[in-house]
Amino acid sequence: MSTTKYSQGVPEGAIVAPNREALNAIVEANPETILHDRDGGFHLLDMEGNVVAVAADELIPELQASFDEADKIIAKEKEEEEKKRDKAEAGDNTPEKEKEEETTKRAEAGLAADQACAHRRCFNSIICVTYKDCHICSSRNICI
Predict the structure, then answer these.
(1) What segment(s) does the record annotate as region Disordered (predicted)?
(2) Are 25 and 34 in contact (CB under 8 A)?
(3) Chain-centre distance for alpha carbon 33
(4) CA-CA-CA-CA dihedral for 125, 130, 134, 135, to nearest 10
């Protein structure tokens, strides 16, 4: 299990997660943590900013793919918000239309209206749009 991607090395006392299952277990044991991409890899930080764990080199590509997907979701949502704002300014949007559009969006994503994030201490459950096999809150405000 290597950690060569980190330019500043692994902080003393940090757990090295070799795979996603191990990282999920670390989060379960430390629920008030958020995953950040930094220093060439991924750091799981507690609320005081202390490093609880880092991802091993072998796990970094999988986490990077999740963060890339989160960035795409964020960009898409930003675009949709801009369209909504334009509709509202043009007077083409009503609360009923907005609710219908949100219901359609959730149905297309395969999400039930009352579905919630699998991460038991999720900071993002209200805004999380993934809801599928997500166990770790990310610094992108989307669980992965």
Answers:
(1) 77-107
(2) no
(3) 12
(4) -30
**pLDDT tens track for 67-110:** 888 888 788 888 888 887 777 777 766 667 766 776 666 566 55
Residues 6+ positions from 24 with CB-CB distance below 8 Å: 135, 136
Q: In angstroms, rounded to a whole number, what is the distance separating the alpha carbons of residues 43 and 121?
A: 18
Q: What is the pTM of this model?
A: 0.67
Report how far residue 129's alpha carbon sits from residue 105's, in angstroms, rounded to the nearest whole number. 10
